[in-house]
Design brief:
Distance between the termini: 35 Å
Strand order of the largest sheet: 1-2-3
Oligomer: single chain
Number of strands: 3
Mean pLDDT: 82
Largest sheet: 3 strands, antiparallel
Radius of gyration: 20 Å
Number of helices: 6
Strand content: 5-15%
Structural class: mainly alpha
Shape: elongated
Low-confidence stretches: 1-15, 35-44
């Protein structure tokens, strides 16, 4: 399910996405246009093994490129979250705010943005649009879901043992749940990789739209000093 962020301007926003970032995101967004239209996935559930005609070295290089693109664009999204927090905390507090960000984990940043939008004076105008706030809450949920997926991607082992037999590699993530080991596995087929980037590209656009809207709603005379 995609998040629809409705952007309405009462005044012109003061920030734009940079041309290099726009070009790079554009290459990923192509996955949305060409990829399968699937429901956003919130975990790496096991899938039945899918055998390719042949898994080649080119397929392996493409997988490496997918993982690299994913991590780069995830960090771009986190950078947008940082910008929202820096704006809310006040530009005059830049050094103090940077030190605070350095101590925060990703889930803490997401929660901090949620708290500011829901309760702070700097974004009070955003709360005059209930439909936008509802969409924003869905965006927060998707950010947490993508954080969980990112953690699985980073901490997974990538198993290529059956590639010579034509099977795609498997991402296997072992976690401790209630004192026992839980394995989350996914076959990294080309279709699964395309879906992974398509979901992230959609999230990147949603976060960028939300950032621009919050710039328009921002009250500079009511910053939330850390």
């Amino acid at each position: 399910m995609r998040t629809l962020i409705v952007v309405r301007y009462d005044r012109a926003p003061t920030a734009r996405i940079s041309k290099p970032a726009a070009h790079a995101i554009g290459t990923v967004i192509q996955a949305i246009e060409t990829g399968p239209k699937k429901k956003r996935r919130t975990n790496m559930n096991p899938e039945p093994p899918i055998k390719n005609a042949e898994w080649t070295d080119d397929d392996t290089e493409a997988l490496f490129a997918t993982v690299g693109k994913y991590l780069i664009f995830f960090q771009w999204i986190e950078g947008k979250i940082d910008q929202i927090l820096l704006m809310a905390w006040g530009h005059q507090n830049w050094s103090q705010s940077q030190a605070r960000l350095a101590r925060m984990k990703n889930h803490e940043k997401i929660n901090a943005v949620d708290e500011l939008v829901q309760n702070s004076n700097v974004f009070a105008r955003a709360r005059t649009r209930p439909d936008w706030i509802s969409s924003f809450r869905l965006l927060i949920e998707h950010l947490h879901a993508e954080r969980d997926r990112r953690n699985s991607l980073i901490h997974s082992q990538y198993l290529f043992e059956f590639a010579e037999a034509g099977f795609p590699p498997v991402a296997s993530h072992r976690r401790k749940v209630n004192g026992t080991a839980e394995f989350r596995q996914q076959d990294l087929t080309p279709a699964a990789q395309k879906d992974l980037l398509a979901n992230l590209a959609q999230l990147a656009m949603d976060v960028n739209f939300a950032h621009v809207q919050l710039i328009a709603d921002y009250r500079h005379d009511a910053d939330e000093t850390p």
